[in-house]
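INTERNAL TRANSFER SHEET
From: sequence group
To: structure group
Subject: Ribonuclease BN, tRNA processing enzyme

Please process the attached sequence and return the structure record in the designated field. Keep the field labels unchanged so the import script can parse them.
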Amino acid sequence: MNLKVIGYWGAYPEPDSATSCYVISDEESKIVLDIGSGALSKLTKYENINKINDIIISHFHYDHFVDIYPLQFNSMIQQNIGKRKEPINIYTPYDPNYSDTMDYKTFTKNIMYNQGPIFDINGFITTFLKTNHVIDSYAVKVKKIGKSIVYTGDTAWSDELVDFSKNADLLICEASLFDGMKGKVEGHLTAGEAGKLANEANVKKLLLTHFPHFGVIELLKKQASKYFKKEIILAEENKTIKL
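Return from structure group:
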């Protein structure tokens, strides 16, 4: 499997960038994890959007899902001109404010998930864990051919997330806060906690993402490295990690 970073900011995109969006792929298929603000423009820059049929949304905060709406029009136009045949599957938790808006005629189809079921999405075996956030939010584990990727989404610390991430080949972990800011923003991890999570879960690689809009971003890696001694990667646009 490969992981490509499309967007990596938290809250809102900096100029010419995007918030949370990642592509997991192999030779046969692709899954998109989150499609936040600015992500559709960047996604179409690096990927053939008509080859993407499945998008997983971790939770309904705008920086993780809002570009679903322009994507719906993209799917409509691409179907109308004959370049797309099937609707895009949008996997989401239930939310009374947004779930009904994920279905759009024949162009996008909502499939709701929770912590229980296991989904086979084009051979990617996908499971979910409810995390410690201010609204219902889920970590996502994607496995295929002996490789695994875990995406934390937005979360504060939880021991369950350690178990969920055990021995992953890659942990995509939010690092919204610098050390010393723990608890100042509810439902988020510090960089040090991200490193601690990776260490306790014994993952092979750690990708830090969901960056704050202040401070020196490179310091996040330094703070995570106090706890995690294996490879740590800072998210950047079009960064591809091969597993």
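Handover comment: Residues 208 and 234 are 5 Å apart (CA to CA). Residues 68-80 form the longest helix (13 residues).
Transfer complete.
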